Amino acid sequence: MARRKHSSVEEEAEIDMTPMLDIVFIMLIFFIVTTSFVKPSGLDYNKPEASQATKKPSANIFIGVSKTGIIMMENRQVDIERVTANVERMLAEAPEAAVLIQADQEAKHGLVVKVLDNVKAAGIDKISVSAGNE
């Protein structure tokens, strides 16, 4: 009776990491492409507190209203008459855009309402006003 000799070289089981690394890189590219970057408005705000404030998805168009009446869009000062034209131009670039208005706590109510009216006149219905709990 002949006995079989086992080979002295043992084969080691190895895990191929290439498919996992491919998936990780694809996920990384997906998250980089789908991330919405926040654009700073260019003004410091003292936001009013709101007990019923809720988080909204990030907007694409930011409008800042300071307590001195300065309106900022895309890090530049804009007259109240030019808000509609600027929003229409931005809406042409991003048709699904939403607007976030960041108004200082001491900003005049009438000016904020005019900005809201001008944004509405540009054809945007998704408008949010920033509050202190965000």
Automatic annotation (TrEMBL):
The keyword Protein transport applies. It comes from the Bacteria. Its main location: membrane. Coiled coil: none annotated. One of its GO terms (molecular function) is transmembrane transporter activity. It is a single-pass membrane protein; Single-pass type II membrane protein. It is found in: Cell membrane. One of its GO terms (cellular component) is plasma membrane. Gene3D superfamilies: 3.30.420.270. This is Biopolymer transporter ExbD. It comes from Shewanella atlantica.
